[in-house]
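[Meeting: bench + compute handoff]

Bench side (C.D.) handed over the final construct sequence. Compute side (W.E.) agreed to return the predicted structure before the next meeting so the bench team could plan truncations. Sequence as handed over:
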Amino acid sequence: MIMREWRGRLPHHKVEAYLGYLKVTGLPEYAATAGHLGSWILLDRDGETAEYTLLTLWESREAIHAFAGDDIERAKYYPEDHRFLTEMPEKVRHYELLERDADGSAASAH
């Protein structure tokens, strides 16, 4: 499994509106793509701007290609993203999932 990480910064006053936008753009497209295993939306409100982190879990890199196209390292944006985001990174990160608990929860560090 592969986890895809995207981050974007935006003004605090646009946080709720952008979440609504994600719910009609990226989230449904992720869910409709074969091999998508789940999405997590994280929000960091600290600092002068807020930062969204979207984590999506995929069966394989091939499944990510079905969503993102040929260059899976390139961030995928939607037509109105520029209205919300002050930073639109060109690249995303991918992580191989090496281990998880049998119930799917994150393993605890000791």
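W.E. noted at the follow-up: Helices lie at 15-24, 26-32, 61-68, 81-84. C.D. will use this when planning the next construct.
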